[in-house]
Amino acid sequence: MKKRCEWAKDEPNISYHDKEWGKPQHNDQKLFEFLILEGAQAGLSWTTILKRRDGYRKAFSNFDALKVSKYTQKRVEKLLKDESIIRNKLKINSAINNFALLIAELIFSLFLIIDSSLSSFSTRF
User: Is the pTM of this model over 0.85?
Assistant: First the structure.
């Protein structure tokens, strides 16, 4: 019998534990998936989210960050009616906005690496 953490007693926790938990992840799409799922999990059990994972995959364009970042208010309204995901407006909006915030943070970090200060960079324009 495989040694597992105490919380991995049944599905979907067993599969998640054996195949994903604690393993480094370098795939951007997979990292975006976890960003969305972890945001949805706030206040809920991880088991609840894992059971809805396929629903999230369909609802959020197979976790394609670029597609998700372009979702409109009309799409948000559709997601709020989707019973295969957690229908919380704040969580849905954060999933959509997190990619844009991540990109903004990366761009800001690049500015600092290139110019060492935002002030010196901004004076170029």
Answer: no
